Amino acid sequence: MPTDSPRSVVPLTPTGQPAPTQSFYEAVGGEATFKRLTDAFYEEVAGDEIMRPLYPEEDLAPAARRLQMFLEQYWGGPHTYSEERGHPRLRMRHAPFTIGERERDAWLRCMRSAMDTVELAPEYDQVMWEYMERAADFMRNS
Question: Disordered: where is this region (predicted)?
């Protein structure tokens, strides 16, 4: 999976001049946005017959927190994920689970619904969605 992250965007002022650079994380609303996204995602997961069995924990809150921390860090926010858990090593962490096309598609369906709930501006939605598609495909191991 690509390790590059779109850490900053350069918005323009009304006069067309570059505005001060801000991270993607800041541009989309920071912690509150990523919390809403992960909450909406795990609400979908909880009711999904394909996704729910992939989460062995009864309580999905710890998984939601891990995803939120990961996404925040990836998109230019706090580095809490790495501070608490080390390098993401996504493929290694997901290796115990069979992730084929069916699971990838279910994950994307849940994430698309969550992103639609959050309603990012179209330009940010497109960038994030393209990442989600690449990430989901990268996680396939069967």
Answer: 1-20
